[in-house]
Design a protein that fits this description.
Elements: E1 2-5, E2 8-12, H1 51-56, E3 63-72, E4 76-80, E5 83-88, E6 94-99, E7 107-115, E8 118-119, E9 125-127, E10 133-142, E11 150-159, E12 176-179, E13 185-186, E14 192-194, E15 198-201, E16 208-216, H2 239-261, H3 265-271, H4 273-282, H5 289-302, E17 307-309, E18 318-323, E19 330-334, E20 339-340, E21 343-346, E22 353-355, E23 360-363, E24 366-369
Antiparallel strand pairs: 1-2, 2-18, 3-6, 3-10, 4-5, 4-7, 7-16, 8-9, 10-11, 12-13, 12-14, 14-16, 15-16, 17-21, 18-19, 19-20, 21-22, 23-24
């Protein structure tokens, strides 16, 4: 059975189905931005080439940036520059931190949260729980100081209590500049900029997109996915377009799955070369480290006689087509937590699962493994 669930394409299987399947929603509408009374952007700072910034900023070393997610009573997904960071469709509480270096670029970046309203069995919106909230805090620490200080750069927060206006963003950082050479304290000449958060309505049922841009000087090259083709999001697709996108993406997963099933490492590894190379750079690893680790992982896990590669068809729960808010990345996921559809399952204990998460981008219409 095919269904539209929270404005995403979902394959719902009636046999031992996990999770609650809602009926089809009407076509999605384009979002609209809420008016803003806040300063739209901080004033431009002098070039970040002053001796003080060059000598004292931890950003000139090997910074590690992360996104700390806190959520309650609302289905949500968190993205950095369109890359999938965290997801939970169950509405349960969350308190977790994720590394994001490999999603960032020097200069302008964007943090985004998509929050979904609840639906009844007829697909009508039930709105948000009164205590529904998602908060994401961007943090940084020096790479050489595992136990050293961690600094907050910006906070993006959605709270359903203020949904009708900008009050929904209360608790988010205000626009301004921060000085990375002095503990990221506010400073008019700071080298880090935080811009005004914005909120858009994505669907008639009330799903929202909350986002904030920020500038951070980093010695990072742009990830390739930031120059990818831009696809429609699932909120913008018709049902036929979503079905077509789902089928195309499933075919790309099948290529990876078949190579894994045959233990054809010479075919598998080139698929992940771009992803591995960018991860090495972002995490300050010697070239080739991630690719070697990935091959070792595949060889070890696929040789384990106690587990097997799960069939690439949903036999329980539902599969979802996810497209990032900026249309740069896409994937198929499974279940409330956006789990990977390619996975190894223990033959004796089916609940023991090793996931192989894969995200694709498009370049001139061709699907490429991006993350």
């Amino acid at each position: 059975m095919i269904n539209l669930h929270r404005a995403k394409l979902v394959i719902v299987v009636p046999i031992l189905a996990l999770g609650f399947a809602c009926k089809a929603r009407p076509n999605r509408e384009a979002g609209r931005a809420a008016p803003s009374s806040q300063q739209d952007a901080p004033k431009a700072a002098p070039p970040a080439s002053s001796n003080e910034h060059e000598k004292d900023s931890m950003l000139n070393g090997k910074p590690y940036l992360s996104a700390a997610v806190e959520a309650a009573s609302v289905p949500y997904a968190v993205y950095v520059n369109g890359a999938f960071v965290a997801m939970d469709r169950s509405g349960g509480p969350a308190n977790e931190t994720w590394p994001i270096n490999h999603y960032l670029r020097d200069g302008r970046n964007e943090l985004a949260i998509v929050v979904n309203s609840w639906l009844d069995e007829q697909g009508s919106s039930l709105g948000f729980a009164k205590d529904a909230s998602v908060q994401v805090t961007l943090r940084v620490r020096a790479g050489s100081e595992t136990d050293g200080p961690t600094y907050d750069i910006a906070r993006l927060k959605f709270a359903a209590a203020g949904l009708r206006d900008e009050a929904a963003l209360q608790g988010s950082s205000a626009a301004g500049r921060l000085d990375s050479a002095h503990g990221f304290e506010p400073a008019s000449t700071g080298d880090v900029a935080v811009y005004t958060p914005r909120i858009e309505q994505l669907s008639p049922e009330g799903d929202r997109l909350v986002r904030m841009e920020f500038d951070v000087p980093l010695a990072f090259s742009d990830p390739a996915f930031l120059s990818s083709d831009v696809s429609k999001t699932t909120y913008q697709m018709s049902e036929d377009e979503a079905l077509s996108a789902y089928a195309e993406l499933l075919s790309a997963y099948e290529v990876v799955w078949k190579a894994l099933a045959k233990h054809d490492y010479d075919k598998i590894m080139p698929m992940f070369e771009e992803r591995s190379r960018e991860t090495d750079r972002a995490l300050y690893l010697p070239a080739g480290t991630t690719q070697r680790s990935l091959r070792n992982f595949f060889e070890k896990e696929l040789a384990d006689s106690e587990q097997q590669l799960a069939p690439l068809r949903p036999n329980s729960g539902y599969w979802t087509l996810d497209v990032s808010p900026n249309g740069r990345l896409m994937r198929l996921s499974w279940g409330d937590h956006g789990s990977a559809i390619i996975r190894l399952v223990n033959k004796e204990y089916s609940g023991l699962i090793t996931e192989i998460p894969i995200v694709f981008r498009k370049d001139k219409g061709r699907l490429i493994v991006a993350r």
